[in-house]
Structures are given as C-alpha cells and as structure tokens.
Amino acid sequence: MDAIDPIRDGRTQFFVPSMKDLGVRDTDSGDADGECVYLCGNSLGLQPRAARALVNEELDKWSKKGVNGHFEGERPWVSIDDNVTPLVAEIVGALPHEVAVMNSLTVNLQLIMTTFYEPTQERHKVLMEAQAFGSDWHAVASHVELNGYDPHESIMSPEMDKDGLHTTAAWLSLLDREGESISVVLIGAVQYLTGQFFDDIPTITQKAHEKGVRVLLDCAHAVGNVPLCLHDWQVDAAIWCHYKYCNAGPGAIGGYFIHEKHTNSDTVAAASFVNGHQRNKGDSKIFQPRRLAGWWGADLSTRFSMRHEFISATGAAGFRLSNPPVLETVALLASLRIHTQYGMQALRGKSLLLTGYLEHLLETMLQSHVHILTPREPNRRGCQLSLAFPSLPPSTPFERLFKTLADKGVVVDHREPNVIRVAPTPLYNSFADVWRFVDILAQALGVQCEQ
C-alpha cells in the first residue's frame, strides 16, 4: 500500500525520531538507528525538516539587522503573520480576513468568550460537551463565575449515547428545551478523548441561531485533520492550536476565526471606541463586537501613533493583542507549505485509508482484546482511534501495557483511566507504521498473530 501512496514522500519532509533517540533497546530488528512508530500527531506533530532553516533565517536577520528586521528582508516582522494567515484560512475553510494567527489555544478561547458570552439573568447558560477538555471547562467556568453565576448551574451538557458518543439529536433537543436560557454553545469539532468528528455542525448552528444562541468551536483536534468549512457553516467563532496536525512545534502559536458577519466592512472597519465604549459615526451607531483590545489589533495606519483611541483593523486581525512571535510563526510556515503541497482533499483521502487499515487490523487480530471507542463511520472521525482494554489480565495492568509499547519504540499517548489514543497522520505516517503498531500491541497483550 505504501508503494502506491501518492503522498508517501511527505514523510521525507519530517524528522522521525529513531529508536536510539528515544532510548529504545528492545527492537525486533535490532536496528537502534531505525525509525520509531510515531502515532502521536494528535498530541504533537513531528518537526518539518524545513523548520530549522526558516527559524535560522530569522535568527540571522536578528543578528544582522536588529530592530530593522521589523521592516526589512523577505519576511518583515511587522507583517510576519501575513505569510501564514491565507494558508491557515484555506485549511479551516474561511476567508483570509476571518482568520488571525495569534496567542495560544486557551487564551483565544478566553477572547471569544469575552466577545460572545454576554449573560443576562434570563440567558446565562453555556452548552458544551460533558467530556470537554479540562482547559476548555476552566476557561468557560471562569467567565461564568466572573459574571456572577455558578458554573455547575450555568454549564449544561447534552446526554451521550450508550457508546459514549455525541448525537446531533441530543444537542438539538437541549437547544429546543433550553434555548431561551442559553447564551453560547461550545463544541469540540473533534472530541479529544474519543476522536469523534462532529460532522453535523451546520445543523446545530442553524438551530442555535434560531434560538438566538452564538456557536463557538474548539478545533484543536480538527485543524489539519478533517475538512472544515467554518465560513460556510456560519459558526460565529472558532479557536485552535497548530502543534498537533499542523506540526508547528510545542507551544506553537494558535489560530482564531470570527465570521465576517460580525466584522463586515460596512459596520466595523471604520468603527472606533475609547475605553470600551462605542463611538458614533455621523448619525448612525457603529456596531462593535466586544473585545479585549491590544495595539496589534489596531489598524496599521494608526498602530504606531500611540493615540488612546482604538481604530480596529479589518476582520479577525482587529482582535489581535500583541505582535506574533516570529520564530513560532515561521515554524508554522514550514509545515503549512507541506500541507499546501498536497492539499486537504488528498490528506483526508489517505487519512481515511490509514485509519481504516488500523481498524481492520485491530478487528481481525485483536477483536476480543481491544474496544474501539471512536465511531466506526469514517465520516464521523479523523485520524485518531481511541482504544480501551476491557479484558486486560491482572498480570498486565494498563500502565505496564503502555510502558511495554514505549519500550518497543511505539509513541502514542494515553488518557485516564485506560484509553490509548492512536493517530496515524497522513503527512508522515505509513501503512507499515500501522502494521508495526498492531503487531507490537499484540505482543504486549500476549496475543499470537500471523502476518
């Protein structure tokens, strides 16, 4: 299968850790310099080979130009994010002016909550998944508390089905019953624990908007993984990170989307405010979304004037706070160029095959030993399969199983209490990687398999 993979050379554009790099001694082949089985792009993507050169170019410019680097060279720092914003917009299905590359995931979640969570006594609830990532819950709860409400009363979640998965019907039902009391909906586009891709976001968005509810997405596990159409879906805002499937490095700069209907040029481009108050232009009041403002969100024509009057940049750029970190931004650029080379359609096509192959091997070789938590329908999942082990013998506790995999050069991750997340990533993973993982997992479980 690898021999006929049209994007198999993508792997050559990344550094794949060797067994020796990871300190692995127990190798079946005895080749310590051989590559490990890295199936952890859902947690941290591998380093693009081009990243080091791009970062070094900016370090060299800093050493030779100093502060003048802001306005000189191939990539002036003052507009460094212009190099990546259009590429990111293409991946998330947005217009370029709807996207900003800035901050980090939870900071950006705090910012979209500031803009869209405007609780009243009648409408103060937040609808979000019960198994939301911990940081999302903390961020949302902090906004609820700052506005004088109890998170345990104001945060509500739809029921999951018997398999622990979300259903569109449950979200719609709760919106029908409680919509008049809900301020915002927050959906994880791909659920971090189960790997479920919430593929019916437009239906939920339409129902929420009918009820006067804003829709926000956490796309941390979705960007670069599954097809996204943020603009066409009409969601109000979204946030994500770039260190997973976009391979921008640990702690990488994040992404931010706000639909143009909230920042369209007729109402906002010329808007201004002082100390958070709306300003009038002529006889008409200008619509201005709530925001926490910073100088990098100001229009470039006024940004360096240091006046105490905020003139917003157009679109999502108006929500930036500070200048983006240059080294993080060019590290992201290295990976985005590879994404652009192949395109999301080709990547998604290979992803479906890789994950389908993983599912097939698990079902044919380890069916009685492994339970797949992720939906079986390909359109309801991304790269990741989440595995539980309900019948582990006492002699093989979960912690020992995970350590055995690591000792044999398998890099995956786990979540409490007993879930291993496995994510074959199309940019750099091969079908051989998938086979090696299942073979090693079978050995760790003490199951004899035939190739």
From TrEMBL:
Function description: Catalyzes the cleavage of L-kynurenine (L-Kyn) and L-3-hydroxykynurenine (L-3OHKyn) into anthranilic acid (AA) and 3-hydroxyanthranilic acid (3-OHAA), respectively.
Quaternary structure (record): Homodimer.
Pathway stated in the Swiss-Prot or TrEMBL entry: Amino-acid degradation; L-kynurenine degradation; L-alanine and anthranilate from L-kynurenine: step 1/1; Cofactor biosynthesis; NAD(+) biosynthesis; quinolinate from L-kynurenine: step 2/3
Modification N6-(pyridoxal phosphate)lysine, positions: K244
InterPro entries: Aminotrans_V_dom, Kynureninase, PyrdxlP-dep_Trfase, PyrdxlP-dep_Trfase_major, PyrdxlP-dep_Trfase_small
Annotated organism of origin: Vitrella brassicaformis (strain CCMP3155)
Gene Ontology molecular functions: kynureninase activity; pyridoxal phosphate binding
HAMAP family, A to Z: Kynureninase
Known cofactor(s): pyridoxal 5'-phosphate
UniProt entry tagged with the keyword Cytoplasm: yes
The protein's name: Kynureninase
Subcellular location: Cytoplasm
Catalysed reactions listed for this entry: L-kynurenine + H2O = anthranilate + L-alanine + H(+); 3-hydroxy-L-kynurenine + H2O = 3-hydroxyanthranilate + L-alanine + H(+)
Cellular component terms per the entry's GO annotation: cytoplasm
Key words, A-Z: Cytoplasm, Hydrolase, Pyridine nucleotide biosynthesis, Pyridoxal phosphate
Entry EC number(s): 3.7.1.3
Family per record: Belongs to the kynureninase family.
